[in-house]
Every structure is written in C-alpha cells, then in structure tokens.
C-alpha cells in the first residue's frame, strides 16, 4: 500500500497545456496565441540586446561570485526596481517609507504580499478578510491568495462582455459594497487577460472609493513599459494612488519588460505610512521569505540592477522595451484593419483600444474550439490571444481564420 | 499629500527577531575588529577566507554563454536535464527507481525551497499523520518551514552532548516509539548542526527499525561530507533498497558553490510510474501559486556539469578538495588547541564530518567568544569549519581555549 495511493491526478494548468498541444500539432500553419511571452516578427523568443550586453559584463567581472543574497534580495535591485514603479522623484521614496522584497517573478511577489497580509493585515491571521480579484483575471491570482490561507476570494466586476470594455459602474459598485478593509488586486496596466485599462479619470474614481471605504490596494504590475512603450505612462495609476496617501503593495515582474522570464525576477514594493512601520513590515517579510525560499536567485536581479543603475544601459533598455511595445501596437492595428477589410461581422475596435500583450477577442468557447481544432490556432478558452504570437507572416491566416470562425460558428 | 487614515495598517506589526543563523553574518559585517572571524553561515571559504567559485562552474558558464540560449519560462517542474541528473546523482545511475520511472524529481529553490514543497505536499496529501520527527538538534529552519506548512514538530534523540557524538541507543529508543506513518527527517550526511553522522551499520539498524514511517531525507551536503559522492549518498540508497519509498531534498548550494543561484531538487519515490505521474501533477499545483516556475541560471550550470563527463570529473575533484580542506582544518584546530594548553577532549572536532562542528561550547562561552574575540557563530556552539583558515586557526584556538579553560 502506498502512502500516496489516494493522490488524485490534478488537471494540468490550462495555459501550459495549450502550449503542449501546440507543440504536438503537425499543421505547418499552426499559430500559438497562448502563453504570454514576447515573440519577434519571426515568431522567435527575443533576448533583449541590453540583456546580452549586461550578461557579458557579469561574466567578465571576476569580483562576482555565487554567494547568497540577503534574505530580502539584492539591495541595488530592490531600490532601483521600486524607483521604476514609483518614479525617481517619488516623495514616498524621499520620505524613506518605501521598501521592497526581491521575489521570484511577479508570482513570487504576489505570494509574499499575500502571505504577509494574511498574517498581519486586518488583525492577526485573519483568513476571512475578503480578497477581490477582477472578473476575469490572471488565472493564478486566485490560487496565490487561497494558498496563502485566504478563505474568501471574490470577483469584482470588470469586463463588460457586451460592450467589450470596462464595466466601470459594476467595478465601482463592488468597491462600494465590499466589506471594509477588503483587499483588492488591481492591474497596474495592460490588464490580463482583457487588455482593458481604466482611464485616468476612472482610476481616480476607483481611488476615491477605496480611500473612503478603507480598502487595501494591491497592484499587480507585470507589464510596465510593455503596454504603451513608456515606463512612466504605464505607472500612472500606481503613482497616483501613492499621491493619494495609500499604504499599498505593488508586485512587479521583470519577466516581460526585460524578457527575463526564466530568471524569475520580481519585486514586491511596499509603501508604508512611515519608515518605522516599514522597518517592522520588512522584518516580518524576512520571516516569510526564510520559510519559503530563504533568499532569492541572484543572476536576474543583478542583471536588472546593473541595467537600471547604468545610464547608457538604462536608455538602451527603454529602447528595447519600446521596440517590443511598438511591434505589438503594429500587430493590433494590422489585425483590426484586416478584419475590417474582410467585413468580419461584429465590431473590432477593441483590438486597437485594448493595450498590452493580450486581447480579449470576444470569441466564445465554441469558436475558440473551432479555431484550435480546425485552424490550428491556439488561444485560451476565454478568447484571450497573445498579440505577440502574431507576425506579418501569419496575420493574414489568423484574420481569415477569425473571419471564418465568426461566420460559421455561433 | 492627503492621508487615508492617521493610523497605519501596520501599527500592530511586531518587529521580527533577527534570523538566528543569517543574523550572525549580519552582526559579523558590522564588527570593525580586523581579526574577526565568521563561523556562522555554512558557506565554503578557501584558505584565504574567500568565497570559492568552482572552476567547473566557470567553465560551465562559458559553455552556456556560447550557446546563446533564450530565456523562455521553464516548465513548472524545472529543467529536465537538471532534474534527471539530480536524481541520478542522489540515487546512482543504475538505480532501479530511476529505471522504472517511479521517482518524480522537481527542480526547487535550493534546499529550503525543496523542503518547503515537500512540507506542503505532505501537509496536503499525507493526511494520516501530522507529525514530523526531527533529530535533536536539527537545522534551525526545519521547524519553521514545517510549522508554516501546517505540520506538527516532534523530536527524536540524536546528539549526545556528553560525547559530542551520536546517541545511537537514544535514537533507536525514540524512533521505535514513533507512531506509524509519522514523518521522520533524516540528514543523509554531514548532519547540520552537529556534524555527527551514524555509521553504516547504525544506519542499517535504523532502516530496519520501523517499516512504516515516511522517511524524509535532507541531503544538503552530498560530496561535501566525505569527499565522495556515492559514500555520502549511501544511507539514502540503502533505505530505498530496503523498500522505503522516501522523499528527498537536495541542495547544490554547497557542493557546487551555487548558493545564490538557488539550485535544488525534491524527489518522491513512488510505488510505480503511474503514481509518480499523479504525484508530479500535484507538485505542480503546489509550485505554481508560489513562484510559477523555477530560475534557470543555476539549474543550467548544474545540469551542464552533471551531464558533461570532463566537467563532472573536474567537479568531483573540486568537491573532494573542499572536503579535504575542511578535514585539514579540523586537524589543525585540534592541534592548535593542544598547543594552547587545552586539556579538554577535542576528539569530536575530528570525528565530526562536513561543514559544521558542534564544539560543545555553551551559550555563555559563545557569547564571550563573540564579544571578546569577534568570533561569530551560532549560540548552540556550532561553527562552520569552512570559515576556518590556516591564517586564523591559531587565533580561533586561542579564543576557544580562553573561554573553556
């Protein structure tokens, strides 16, 4: 008898299964519009030129070794990463009330934040504090918070399927009716999976309600720079909330904007009321880190730190980021134009109105299935496509396929 | 700037105490005494007291750089080339477990990450027993890891402070009383913090003692203890041979000097390949909400070394070299203590194995050693032999003698 005789087979994580199925598909015309990773116009992964440069610098530096980082990570990474999110001249930074924890990717940053909140927010070990995630949201948000012990994870209205845009009234309504002190996970920019972000005015309305009702602000910032091509523009919401005096968390990922996916480079930026509170918070973060991974991996953080702290490299990075964002914008414009030219039924403005890596096409599950089975075009059941999977070579095939699908399948 | 509220959300958050082990290094850094010695963290140092980047690691890095690989996400379970080699290293190339595919090995965030995934897995699926039995004493971080994962901690006798050696009878007595299906943690080699390991015939008796305990091996020092990879994995392999389906944590922090790259593995030895598949699917479900997938850099270095014959050979030589330097330092320390005039029995310093030495010093003596001599170590009297050099061993002996005479 095995101790693990009763362990059930778990269902595979959808987005990775999609990639697997794509790999096994023999159709030469196949297109992968699944996993959120940038691709060049040749459909290839892209190691940023600045990253290659900095890797050479690291290899050549004999003073570097593989020693443990501090529990909270590489100091020059943490501070420069927080500056990226909050701005060089952020008053909160100047007031010494901003700290950070280097984490394993955006996931790791969310995880650390969630674990801390469960232990120390709204009482001690209050697992009943409601956690609100957008409807829809990144599929791992739910699991991160529930694994941290939160028992009550709820959706807040966000995506309006009918009008294919933000359901602002629903969003504000859920903020008004949420129990006080509820935690809200907000997407800083380039909402995943819808690509639909609130406008500045809409963010201001959200902030007003959250302040009044004492709701906790937890930003997920996985695409800074990637959305508009401009770091500051993409950080507007995060910075606005800081000016409004919130104590908040911001989980940052450098997977996409640095193309460092597998190095697991993330940062949990913490904005506290003052430096004393910050100090105590960080000391407790250390305890959580210690029982999870002890200290974070050095390579990726070192790479980012060198880049952000060296003016010419920083400029080059911003340029690389703009290259990626621009290609996505081009694909959006092309796809929309082609669908319009084909006179595909429905409206397709949302493709160019949405922002970032993803687009919520509006295709329903049956249509998605058709795309996969009949056209070998792989996308998520939600209708989400990764714009980076589009290239000048496959965009016609994709546009025609969407057209055929919408016409034949309801 | 407007304020939401006059109070902070975090007013009630207490200041956390410094980590007992990592806190030592931080205190060391602040000390301005030029003779200071850091014998806290288990990180290897060469005879100049400097971190040592293995030559095979540098070569592997150069090879990897030349390949111009992409940075796409790894699978949740990590780099296949790494996990396969990791299992082979622990279990032996020809192990029947690997041949039959009845192990699942996932890449983890070094040893800590491996223990944590293991703890989470047991907490979720090993519902018949909540108790984890640790040797007394054990690595300081074992307890908080298992506790945080929802397990209960108990202990079995292990270290004999009278002899500074293994309390074999005490261990057997305690282990024989452990309730069936409980989890028992065994340090595969180079016990941390004591450096005291059972002898093979003692391991045999332990393996035979209770058939229905879930054995969790922590192997953080394979190669580092005796200098021989296979010898250090002997206990792990013996238990499996005897029919224990173990779980195993491995770290490459020390034996490859990859500390900050966070390279580790977690293995579950299952009944068969079908079960291994189910277990793998559940491990992925556990990993995904923590960090999604593991970091590439260190795993790729380790895989390159393990899978390239001349690099592997070079690595074995370097591990052997590190272990030998430690053994030499043990001998030197004892010789110097005798020279200082110490009449105490320091035989255990030589008998103990691996990076750590349980000196037998009491907390008050440790405190004096730190305050008066700037020698940094953990309160339990543990010193990292890796921090001892031919340059500082004399001063160290002076200090130890001064606080123990």
Automatic annotation (TrEMBL), chain A:
CDD domains, alphabetized: AAT_like
Q: Which Pfam families match?
A: Aminotran_1_2 (PF00155)
Q: What is its EC number?
A: 2.6.1.1
**In which domain of life is the source organism classified?**
Eukaryota
- Give all residue intervals belonging to the Aminotransferase class I/classII large domain: 29-402
User: Where does it reside?
Assistant: Cytoplasm
GO BP term, example: aspartate biosynthetic process
Per the record, what are the reactions this protein catalyses? 3-sulfino-L-alanine + 2-oxoglutarate = 3-sulfinopyruvate + L-glutamate; (2S)-2-aminobutanoate + 2-oxoglutarate = 2-oxobutanoate + L-glutamate; L-aspartate + 2-oxoglutarate = oxaloacetate + L-glutamate; L-cysteine + 2-oxoglutarate = 2-oxo-3-sulfanylpropanoate + L-glutamate
Q: Which SUPFAM superfamilies match?
A: PLP-dependent transferases
**Family membership noted in the UniProt record:** Belongs to the class-I pyridoxal-phosphate-dependent aminotransferase family.
Q: How does it assemble?
A: Homodimer.
Q: Which NCBIfam families match?
A: PRK09257.1
Question: Would you tell me the protein name for this molecule?
Answer: Aspartate aminotransferase
Q: What organism is listed for this UniProt entry? A: Hucho hucho
From TrEMBL, chain B:
GO BP: L-aspartate catabolic process
Q: Kindly list the GO CC terms recorded for this protein.
A: mitochondrial matrix
Q: Which reaction does it catalyse?
A: L-aspartate + 2-oxoglutarate = oxaloacetate + L-glutamate
EC top class, as a word: transferase
Keyword Mitochondrion assigned: yes
Q: Which domain of life is it from?
A: Eukaryota
EC number per UniProt: 2.6.1.1
The record's GO molecular-function terms, alphabetically, read: L-aspartate:2-oxoglutarate aminotransferase activity; pyridoxal phosphate binding
Q: Where in the cell is it found?
A: Mitochondrion matrix
Cofactors (names) = pyridoxal 5'-phosphate
Coarse class of the primary localization is mitochondrion
Family to which the UniProt record says this protein belongs: Belongs to the class-I pyridoxal-phosphate-dependent aminotransferase family.
In terms of PANTHER family, this protein maps to: ASPARTATE AMINOTRANSFERASE (PTHR11879), ASPARTATE AMINOTRANSFERASE, MITOCHONDRIAL (PTHR11879:SF22)
Q: What is this protein called?
A: Aspartate aminotransferase
Q: Which organism is it from?
A: Hucho hucho (huchen)
């Amino acid at each position: 008898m095995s101790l693990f005789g009763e362990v059930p087979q778990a269902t595979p994580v959808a987005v990775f299964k999609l990639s697997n199925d794509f790999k096994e598909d023999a159709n030469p015309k196949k297109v992968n519009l699944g996993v959120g990773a940038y691709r060049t116009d040749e459909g290839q992964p892209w190691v940023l030129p600045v990253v290659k440069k900095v890797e050479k610098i690291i290899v050549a530096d004999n003073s570097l070794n593989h020693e443990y980082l501090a529990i909270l990570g590489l100091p020059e990474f943490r501070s420069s990463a927080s500056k990226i999110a909050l701005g060089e001249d952020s008053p909160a930074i100047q007031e010494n009330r901003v700290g950070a924890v280097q984490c394993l990717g955006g996931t790791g940053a969310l995880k650390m934040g969630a674990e801390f909140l469960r232990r120390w927010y709204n009482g001690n070990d209050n697992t009943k504090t409601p956690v609100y995630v957008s409807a829809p949201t990144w599929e791992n948000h739910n699991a991160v918070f529930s694994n941290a012990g939160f028992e009550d994870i709820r959706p807040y209205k966000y995506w309006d399927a009918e009008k294919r845009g933000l359901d602002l009234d629903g969003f504000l309504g859920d903020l008004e009716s949420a129990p006080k002190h509820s935690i809200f996970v907000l997407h800083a920019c380039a909402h995943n999976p819808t690509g639909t972000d609130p406008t500045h005015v809409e963010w201001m309305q959200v902030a007003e309600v959250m302040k009044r009702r004492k709701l906790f602000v937890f930003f997920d910032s996985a695409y800074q720079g990637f959305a508009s091509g401009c770091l500051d523009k993409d950080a507007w919401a995060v910075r606005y909330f800081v000016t409004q005096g919130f104590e908040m968390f911001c989980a940052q990922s450098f997977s996409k904007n640095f193309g460092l996916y597998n190095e697991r480079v993330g940062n949990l930026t913490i904005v506290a009321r003052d430096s004393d509170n910050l100090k105590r918070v960080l000391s407790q973060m250390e305890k959580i880190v210690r029982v999870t991974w002890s200290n974070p991996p050095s390579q990726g953080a070192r790479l980012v730190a060198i880049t952000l702290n060296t003016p010419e490299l920083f400029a080059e990075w911003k340029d690389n980021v703009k290259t990626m964002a621009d290609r996505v914008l081009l694909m959006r414009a092309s796809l929309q134009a082609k669908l319009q030219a084909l006179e595909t039924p429905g409206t397709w403005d949302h493709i160019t109105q949405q922002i970032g890596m993803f687009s919520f096409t509006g295709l329903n599950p049956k249509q998605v299935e058709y795309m996969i089975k009949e056209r070998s075009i792989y996308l998520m059941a939600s209708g989400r496509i990764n714009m980076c999977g589009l290239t000048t070579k496959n965009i016609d095939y994709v546009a025609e396929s969407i057209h055929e699908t919408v016409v034949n399948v309801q | 700037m407007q304020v939401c509220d006059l109070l902070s959300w975090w007013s009630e958050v207490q200041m956390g105490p410094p980590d007992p082990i990592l806190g030592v290094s931080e205190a060391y850094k602040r000390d301005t005494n030029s003779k200071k010695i850091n014998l806290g963290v288990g990180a290897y140092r060469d005879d100049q007291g400097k971190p040592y980047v293995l030559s095979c690691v540098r070569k592997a890095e150069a090879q990897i750089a030349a390949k111009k690989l992409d940075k796409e996400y790894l699978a949740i379970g990590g780099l296949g080339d790494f996990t396969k080699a990791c299992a082979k290293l622990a279990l032996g190339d020809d192990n029947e477990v690997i041949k039959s595919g009845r192990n699942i090995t996932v890449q983890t965030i070094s040893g800590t990450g491996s223990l944590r995934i293991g703890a989470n897995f047991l907490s979720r699926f090993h519902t018949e027993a909540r108790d984890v039995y640790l040797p007394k004493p054990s690595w300081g971080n074992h307890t908080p890891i298992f506790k945080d994962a929802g397990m209960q901690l108990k202990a079995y006798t292990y270290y004999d402070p009278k002899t500074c050696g293994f309390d074999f009878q005490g261990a057997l007595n305690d282990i024989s009383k452990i309730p069936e299906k409980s989890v028992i943690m065994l340090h595969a080699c180079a016990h941390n913090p004591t450096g005291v390991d059972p002898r093979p015939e003692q391991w045999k008796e332990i393996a035979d003692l209770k058939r229905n305990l879930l054995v969790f091996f922590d192997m953080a020092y394979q190669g580092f203890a005796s200098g021989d990879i296979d010898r250090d994995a002997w206990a792990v392999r013996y238990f499996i041979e005897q029919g224990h389906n173990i779980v195993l944590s491995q770290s490459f922090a020390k034996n490859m000097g990859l500390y900050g790259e966070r390279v580790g593995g977690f293995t579950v030895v299952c009944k068969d390949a079908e079960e291994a598949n189910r277990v793998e699917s559940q491990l992925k479900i556990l990993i995904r909400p923590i960090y999604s997938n593991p970091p590439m850099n260190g795993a790729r270095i380790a895989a390159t070394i393990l899978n390239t014959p001349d690099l592997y050979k070079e690595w074995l030589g370097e591990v052997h070299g590190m272990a030998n330097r430690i053994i030499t330092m043990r001998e030197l320390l004892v010789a110097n203590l005798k020279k200082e005039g110490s009449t105490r029995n320091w035989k255990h310093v030589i008998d103990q194995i691996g990076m750590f030495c349980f000196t037998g010093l009491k907390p008050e003596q440790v405190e004096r050693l730190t305050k008066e001599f700037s020698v940094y170590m953990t309160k339990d009297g543990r010193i990292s032999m890796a921090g001892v050099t031919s340059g500082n061993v004399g001063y160290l002996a002076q200090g130890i003698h001064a606080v123990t005479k």
